[in-house]
Specification:
Elements (H helix, E strand, L loop, with lengths): L1 E9 L5 H9 L17 E7 L2 E7 L9 H12 L6 E7 L6 H10 L6 E6 L7 H11 L7 E4 L8 H10 L2 E2 L14 H17 L8 E9 L3 E10 L2 H8 L4 H18 L2 E10 L7 H7 L6
Parallel strand pairs: 1-3, 1-4, 4-5, 5-6, 9-10
Antiparallel strand pairs: 1-7, 2-3, 8-9
Helix pairs in contact: 6-8
Bound molecules: guanosine-5'-triphosphate and magnesium ion (MG).
The site of magnesium ion (MG) has 6 residues, from helix 1.
Length: 295
């Protein structure tokens, strides 16, 4: 049985969480077209008849301008140690940029096989340029593999899995076959709400929103979930609530559908918004967010 740990790293928005979800065929990590969606390390366990691969989705790495971002970067870098393979993902539709180079320089001398994943090939029109890009990129580091793929369209994921397995040891399964992740169901439920906020408010609000499940009660037929949305300023609270509560209602409806799909049960969801000024600078919130390392 081929078993091991595989880290997915790269700049924000390149498609790391989308890849995790596609590989696991479950929506485990939230995704959005805004940078900095993922804030925690999310472990997803892939099982098939001859392998168990533990994928680690990480926050996108970029030049930090805030304490929060520094912590996110650190989390991502830490997860490039002690793994069997590093998947270094770039958005090849955008092209390989300075930010990608910055990350590559930090990981390339580790004694771990690095796969360069060229994501979003489904929207690359100029296939000849793609071949040229591959030719230019192959000398940047001793990549074990260079794999063009589409995480959202699930193109070439079988090739990726085969190449990963070639780099794993033969061992017993590390986790039970029915285990899916390290994060709690409560965390995933809160993330579904945060995803809808990112999706529905677009660039209107920055990433100063956090969601917590305050109540989670399950009975035979249904699940009652209460989610608290914490924001920094009253004007953000207003945006999220929307006219006569319309946006908050839409956020709730969409999040509920994801929750029901994940839990396989009817969900009664209640959401409410609270303003807490400067919460990002407060230690306790970092702790609550799980952004601080547990030394
Ligand atoms: N066209 C296309 N879009 C993709 C593909 N993979 C991901 N996306 C889109 O790219 C955006 C970012 O995807 P995410 O998976 O959230 O990216 P991420 O790397 O996890 O981002 P952070 O968590 O911010 O670091 C989303 O809008 C996805 O739908 C792909 O293969 N093709
Ligand atoms: Mg992500």
């Amino acid at each position: 049985m081929k078993c091991g740990f595989v880290s997915i790293v790269g700049r924000p928005n390149v498609g790391k969480s989308t890849l995790l979800n596609s590989l696991l065929e479950t929506k485990l990590a939230i995704t959005s077209n805004v940078s900095g969606t993922t804030r925690n390390i999310i472990q997803g366990i892939y099982n098939d008849k001859d392998s168990q691969i533990i994928f680690l989705d990480t926050p996108g790495i970029h030049k930090p301008i805030h304490k929060l971002e520094n912590l996110l970067n650190k989390k991502a870098y830490d997860k490039t140690d002690g793994v069997d393979v590093i998947l270094f993902m770039v958005d090849i539709a955008k092209g390989f940029g300075k930010g990608d180079k910055f990350i590559l320089d930090k990981i390339k001398d580790k004694d771990i096989p690095i796969f360069l994943l060229l994501n979003k090939v489904d929207i690359v029109k100029d296939k000849e340029k793609l071949l040229k890009d591959i030719d230019n990129l192959k000398d940047l580091a001793p990549f074990k593999e260079i794999i063009p793929l589409s995480a959202s369209k699930k193109n070439n994921l079988d090739v990726l899995l085969t190449c990963i397995k070639e780099n794993l040891d033969d061992t017993e399964r590390i986790y039970d076959e029915d285990e899916l992740t390290n994060v709690s169901t409560r965390f995933i439920m809160a993330e579904f709400v945060r995803e809808k906020i990112l999706e529905l408010t677009k660039d209107e609000i920055p990433h100063t929103v956090s969601c917590y499940v305050e109540n989670f009660k399950e009975d035979k037929e249904c699940v009652h979930i209460q989610v608290l949305i914490v924001v920094e300023r009253d004007n953000i609270k207003k945006i999220i609530i929307g006219k006569n509560g319309s946006l908050l209602k839409e956020i709730g409806t969409k999040a509920r559908l994801d929750m029901e799909k994940f839990l396989g049960k009817k969900v009664y969801l209640e959401t409410y918004v609270k303003t807490l000024k400067n919460w990002r600078d407060e230690e306790k919130y970092f702790l609550e967010l799980g952004l601080k390392d547990d030394e």
